[in-house]
Amino acid sequence: MGEFLITGGRPLSGTVTVQGAKNSVLPILAATILHRGTTVLHNCPRLRDVEASVEILRHLGCRVEWTEDALLVDAAGADRWDVPDRLMREMRSSVIFLGAILSRFGQAELSMPGGCELGPRPIDLHLAALRQLGAEIRDGGGRLRCEARRLQGCELTLSLPSVGATENAMLAACGCEGTTVILNAAREPEIADLQAFLCSMGCKVQGAGSSTVAVEGRQRTHDVVHTVMPDRIVAATYLSAVAAAGGEIELRGVDYRHLSTVTAALHEAGCRIHSGGDAIRLRSDGRLKAIRPVRTAPYPGFPTDAQAVLMAALLRSRGTTVFVENIFENRYRHVDELCRLGADIRVEGRVAVVCGVERLTGAAMECTDLRGGAAMVVGALAAEGESRIGSVRHIQRGYEDILRDLRLLGAQAEER
Ligand code: UD1
After folding, report:
1. Is the CB of 307 under 6 A from ligand 1?
2. Strand 224-227 relative to strand 212-216: parallel, antiparallel, unpaired?
3. Least enclosed by CB within 10 Å: which of 93, 139, 386, 389?
4. Residues 268-280: tens digit of each pLDDT
């Protein structure tokens, strides 16, 4: 176990339904504790990060159960406000529980999340926002202790549109007296999904998807049933896989509007794409063209999470493509591994230059991070012969069953 064996170099074809979004369900799971009652989540992906959130919820005193096609959280009996260090280490985004716990209990204690495989992951914007809402936060011995006798809504400006800080501020604002207005909020679709969830629970939130989000705090909440939005990065991965290997894919259960920068890049590279309803169809002859520079940016720009998989799709393209990573410092760790397939990629700081090569050949690679690992899978599918990919637990943090989905497309791929 823990290793993927992929035999690439053959076209893929078929239909895949996309799982629910990891980056949407994690803040929603934190938000469930705002309501002293029951939440039912449909389309909840079964992922390691979701299991970590479930463990946190159980630690806080919630009852959590998986049914056949949903996750049920009963937060009526929640009676703790701390997140143990072990669970904070398991998943960096558990910091999102801070705003929710504070909102419900007026206090919270958790550890500093520390860095991760993408480089330093500061939470200064999260803390600044919570302080503006009235939280007193002390940091000592690696633990963060937050207290708020009274949370008070206000106008707060994020110095950059951080996804996590926007979500944390929204969750804390639900427990505030009065109205909170978050300016320079992140505009990612997952934030709109969090707003949809909070509104179905009885909270008053508006503006998500734009850079100004307003929350009227202290609303009466009620039981809620919500369907998690589709995962646009998983969708981008499967589109990139078929673009790289050649063939045809129909992705179902997606919102194509969330993927417009990714499909535009693949179209420029020579893929034929049709989007409509809840589906995207892509056809590729497997030999793409280089494209204009790809610059990652906050939504609606090109997503940093799709940078690695698009890069993998372009390894055999004709010409040279430049990538500029503007969100995270350390997001090219997959490059050395992709070069083992015979790829020609050079990195200098935030810039990576991909010179397309004629052929890739299977190789042994080691996952470095979640999306970097997915890029290795895409590269392996485009490479002739067998590839082995180790440390796939990184991939399993975000993909429910990537091999099952790829086998639906005819890929020869198994886990050992
Ligand atoms: C979320 C996503 C992640 C995605 C990222 C950017 C989740 C669970 N994760 O991460 O998959 O790659 O958005 O789209 O939704 N920053 C600070 N101070 C802070 C917070 C952030 O300097 O307090 C910086 C970060 O270092 C980074 C940038 O802001 O350079 C963007 O980070 P942010 O939007 O917060 O990403 P996450 O919410 O951590």
Report:
1. no
2. unpaired
3. 139
4. 999 999 999 999 9
Asked whether residue 169 falls in the same domain as residue 261, the answer is no
Q: Contact, 410 vs 392, CB < 8 A?
A: no
Spatial separation of the C-alpha atoms in residues 25 and 189, rounded to whole Å: 12
Residue 362 and residue 186: Cα distance in Å, rounded?
Answer: 39
Mutate to test the pocket of ligand 1, among 139, 327, 330 (most ligand atoms within 8 A of CB): 327
Whether the CB of 165 sits within 6 Å of ligand 1: yes
C-alpha to C-alpha distances, 255 to 135, 153, 172, 206, 225, nearest whole angstrom: 37, 33, 29, 21, 20
275: domain CATH number is 3.65.10.10
Domain finish residue from 227, 253, 283: 227
Domain boundary among 207, 227, 247: 227
**What is the b/e burial string over 271-301, where b = at least 16 CB atoms within 10 angstroms of the residue's CB?**
bebebeeebbbbbbebebebbeebbbebbee
Domain that holds residue 175: 22-227
Please tell me whether residues 53 and 89 are part of one structural domain: yes
pLDDT in tens, 177-212: 999 999 999 999 999 999 999 999 999 999 999 999
Instruction: Looking at the structure, tell me whether residues 221 and 245 fall in a common domain.
Output: no
Question: How far is Cα 24 from Cα 220, in angstroms, rounded to an integer?
Answer: 23
Ligand 1, atom 20: nearest CA belongs to which residue? 123
Please, which pLDDT band fits residue 121 given cuts at 50, 70 and 90? confident
Residues 186, 238: one domain? Answer: no
CA of 40 from ligand 1 middle (Å) equals 27
